[in-house]
Design goal:
The protein has nine helices and ten strands. With about 260 residues, it is an alpha/beta fold.
Length: about 260
């Protein structure tokens, strides 16, 4: 049964149509990889789900929350409730530089969920342990590597106990040698049963971790299936062309 449903979602920036009639259902426990060329609306799709971007048309239903679009002022409380239950990990880490890793994870628990400091600290420590950073809890962001900072950002999301986690290119801001530690963390979280939507250019990782893959092009979903179906047996010429190019990029340029 779907816990999240998007119907006919449209989003434009001036004259640029970014999402052009998106229909998507997400079931509990789904790990959905979102792939496609740059500029086809992948990040905008994630940001529209938790309404950081506000679509002009369509409908979002998350469990008992129904939001017709465009948004109206009377639905402000519903938007707040939706955001409490859908966590997001961004490309950039957005950590408070003047707060320790532990304090960064505690922040949302105290200010949004109104937890006591004692309870917030307990939940934050559990989340940091989940991403392998409990020993770094008293370090400030400037003393952490980019990979560690992103793992703190993931812990911050986990601590809020979201029903769905959205990950928007979580490794794109990292040096190549730091990518693996973040991907390993995400894999571990996925194995805990979280429902996740992941935008990433790490095709091999998306292929291995996803239970389902959707391919966006021109603001539309043109492929939707298992990783094997989408990566190895795409139905559309556009997806075949994209994956052919991606595979050629893996080939060595020079032979010695």
């Amino acid at each position: 049964m779907a816990i999240l449903t998007l119907k006919d979602i449209h989003k434009s920036f001036r004259d640029n149509v970014v999402l052009n009639g998106i229909d998507l259902s997400v079931n509990k426990g789904d790990i959905i990889g979102i792939v496609g060329p740059s500029g086809t609306g992948k990040s905008t799709l994630l940001r529209s789900i938790n309404l950081l971007e506000k679509p002009e048309q369509g409908e979002i239903t998350f469990e008992d929350i129904n939001l017709p679009l465009p948004l109206q002022a009377k639905n402000r409380k519903k938007v707040t409730e939706l955001r409490k239950r859908i966590g997001m990990v961004f490309q950039r880490f957005y950590l408070f530089e003047h707060k320790t890793a532990l304090q960064n994870v505690m922040e949302g628990l105290i200010t949004v969920q109104k937890k006591s400091k004692k309870e917030a600290e307990k939940l934050a420590l559990e989340a940091l342990e989940n991403v392998g950073l409990k020993a770094w809890r008293n370090h400030y962001p400037k003393h952490l590597s980019g990979g560690q900072q992103q793992r703190v950002a993931i812990a911050r999301t986990l601590a809020m106990k979201p029903d769905i986690i959205l990950l928007d290119e979580p490794t794109s801001a990292l040096d190549p040698e730091l990518v693996t530690e973040v991907l390993t963390t995400i894999k571990g979280i996925a194995e805990q049963g979280y429902t996740m939507l992941l935008v990433s250019h790490e095709m091999d990782f998306v292929n291995k971790i996803s239970s389902r893959v959707i391919f966006l092009d021109g603001g539309r979903i043109i492929e939707d299936g298992t990783p094997a179906e989408v990566f190895r047996h795409p139905k559309t010429d556009r997806a075949r062309e994209f994956f052919d190019k991606m595979n050629k990029l893996k080939e060595p340029e020079f032979f010695i």
